[in-house]
Design goal:
- The protein has 97 residues and is of the alpha+beta class.
- It has a single domain, classed as Alpha-Beta Plaits (2-Layer Sandwich).
- Helix content is 37%, strand content 40%.
- The protein is built from 2 helices and 4 strands.
- Strands 2-3-1-4 form a 4-stranded antiparallel beta sheet, with helices on one face.
Length: 97
């Protein structure tokens, strides 16, 4: 079994309140969940309105599939015009590690 996760550090565009932040982050989180059937959540910078940390985790029997999914999650987040992807940190582990 292979387990992979990615942590996306995002800079939000024209956002001036936590309410506006939710209006940007929540649709991104929901789209990532729906499209990739991954566990996804806003996981950091919760009190900052122009920053967000979104984490996603996937499990598969095939390492290549985990890598493909994490790549796709990163690409989708980077393609969103309302956010700038500052960094993406990932980790992939085997159940035998």
């Amino acid at each position: 079994m292979w387990i992979g996760w990615i942590e996306l550090d995002l800079l939000l565009g024209d956002v001036h309140s936590l309410k506006e932040k939710r209006a940007v982050v929540r649709p991104l989180v929901n789209e990532l969940r729906r499209r990739f059937e991954a566990a996804v959540a806003e996981a950091g910078a919760l009190d900052l309105y122009r920053r967000a940390v979104v984490g996603a985790a996937v499990v598969s029997g095939d390492r290549a599939h985990v890598v493909d999914l994490l790549d796709a999650v990163e690409r989708l987040a980077a393609a969103r015009p309302e956010v700038d992807l500052l960094s993406a940190r990932r980790r992939i582990l085997s159940s035998e590690d």
